[in-house]
Amino acid sequence: MKNLSVKKLVGIGVGAVAVLAVLALVAIFALRVDSAEARQIALDAAGGGEVVSQETSSEGLWNEYSYQIVNGDTWYDIEISGFGNITELESGTGQYFRD
Description:
Elements: H1 6-31, H2 35-46, E1 50-59, E2 62-71, E3 74-80, E4 86-93
Antiparallel strand pairs: 1-2, 2-3, 3-4
């Protein structure tokens, strides 16, 4: 087996890091959800209803979504991560007041 020079080893290391970075970016873009998918996740969590407010905030390479949903006399405040996970879910009954 030939001995590899330091330059070749460094080059291999840099190439491996670059490949891993590209794979990570591809995974992030493939796994993240868009606004329509996040809205459906929130509606499913609330058992249906009407979206009365929605907000999107940017967190680096992906967005986070907040939905306020009213279903009958129950209100829901739901936050969805950029990967489609419910990160917060509050609910209550009666009149919904929140700004």
